[in-house]
Amino acid sequence: MPNHQRILLLVSIGVFMSTMDSSMVNVALPTLMRVYGSSLALTEWVVLIYLLTITTSLFFWGYFSKGFGQGVVYSRGLLVFSFGSLLCALAPTIFLLIFFRCVQAVGASMMMAMGPALIKSSFPRDKLGGGLGWVGIATSLGLMTGPAVSGLLLRWSHWRLIFLVTVPVGLVVYFAGRRVLAPLGRSDAGVDAVEKNSFDLLGGVLYVASVVLSVLLLSHATVTSGQPDSFLQQVYSVFAVVFAWGIFILHERRTQNPLFPVTLFKRSFFTMAMLSAMLSFTVLFFVLLLMPFYLSSVRQLPPDQVGYYMMAVPFCVFFIAPLAGRLHDAIGARIIASFGLACCLISLLLLSRISVWSSGYFIVFCLALLGFGQAMFLAPNSAAALSGVSHEQSGITSSLLATSRNMGMLLGTALAGFLFAHVYARLTGGMDIKDFTLEQAPQFVQALQQTYLACALLAAVAVIASLLRGKR
Predict the structure, then answer these.
(1) Can you give the residue range of the structural domain that contains 218?
(2) Which residues contact 83 (CB under 8 A, 6 or more apart)?
(3) pLDDT tens digit string along 120-157?
(4) CA distance to 183, 278, 347, per residue, from 342 (Å)
(5) How far apart are CA 318 and CA 313, in angstroms?
(6) Do residues 160 and 282 both lie within one domain?
(7) Whole-prediction pTM value?
(8) Could you give the number of structural domains in the chain?
(9) How far is CA 391 from CA 87, 257, 267, in A?
């Protein structure tokens, strides 16, 4: 097997495991909420801490790869991810599960940060879109396999197995591929840069603090909504978040080695690629978080059938992602990526009309259309961003792409939970979703409609951002 194909295989397996784990946990959230007797605001932290850790650590791996090498960072990520998965399977409480998900996410962030950079380093430029298209297939296979495997395990076995299934695969791939990956992406210049402490440590701390405060704001607002003095508390929280982001931006503008490469963000194609990527995953995770609750609570479907429904999204990605990559290689990203986001917008508008008695065909069609749009957008957008930068900037660019996607997942999870919980509490007189009964089904659906309609506005902004990317 040619070297670039071996690298593609190793990257694809890592992507497959991390995305399969994410989609399995999304389907398992209703079960975890019942098992631990926790609220929606607490249970969603099983997903939030995973995304939060990835989002806040991706930048660090992009810079560290200059000295240690992209291949070394990626292979060590496989090992940490496998160890974290084992700990999650053994977690006795919801709080320990959340903590161990943080360990698991560190390994996932190492793989996510380096995966596209390894493809960039090993594939010819005229085949970069095709290579990323195959990574899109691995992504879709993970997302497609996860709901089905999770549903079957939850119905016929034990929820802890959803974490154990990735452990042996991760260990085998680590030991099989570490020699292939070890020499990749390391240079003496990178070692010198790391030794000279060129990494913006203060900027990194400020960035992490800003992201964490933003997520805590949404989570805290969900818990305290409707309580006395909640409005005043939320005002103080918003002020703290705005202040933190302001300090971070001011520091980045003044430092000589900013965490965000300012020269890259001066290019419109790059900035809009990052913004549209973040918004596309925000839209996606609105649906991935809330739809399992609708299917299991309102429609009363068993876990395996919930998984089958959720497979509609990655099923379309599996078939469309390679085509989208080839189309990028032929005609560029602007038209294809914008068309894909427009399909996501249509899907959200349709889902905002969902009812208690919506047919299964309607739900599957909406989810499939969302998957089709994501597939048409993802590979062309990533290829456009990577092909427009130099080889030395590919590691940082890869980290930025992964950061924008995971920031979108994080915002989608937090915003969806906040908006839905707020509207549902207002419609039911302050009830939490963990106390749901079929008598509240109309209120549940109404809250879901309003949440998806708000998400459609974000999808519209994503379409506009993609159209404004221009040409590199």
Answers:
(1) 200-256
(2) 103, 107
(3) 777 776 666 667 667 766 776 776 677 778 888 888 88
(4) 41, 15, 9
(5) 9
(6) yes
(7) 0.74
(8) 2
(9) 37, 19, 17
